[in-house]
Amino acid sequence: MAKDYYGILGVSREADDGEIKRAYRKLARELHPDVNPDAETQARFQDVKSAYEVLTDPQKRRIVDLGGDPLETRGGGGGGAGGFSAAGFGGLGDIMDAFFGAAGATGGRGPRSRVQPGEDALIRIDLTLEECATGVARDLTVDTAVLCEKCHGGGAEPGTRTETCDTCDGRGEIQNVQRSFIGQVVTARACPVCRGTGEIIPSPCTQCSGDGRVRSRRTVTVQVPAGVGDGMRIRMASQGEVGPGGGPAGDLYIEVSEERHEYFTRDGVDLHCHVSLPMTAAALGTTLPQRTLEGDEELTIEPGTQPNTTHTLRGRGMPRLRSTGRTDGRGDLLVHLDVQVPDRLDARQTELLRELAELRGEERPDLAAHRNGLFGRRRQGGRAR
Question: Is the overall model pTM greater than 0.85, yes or no?
Answer without folding.
Answer: no
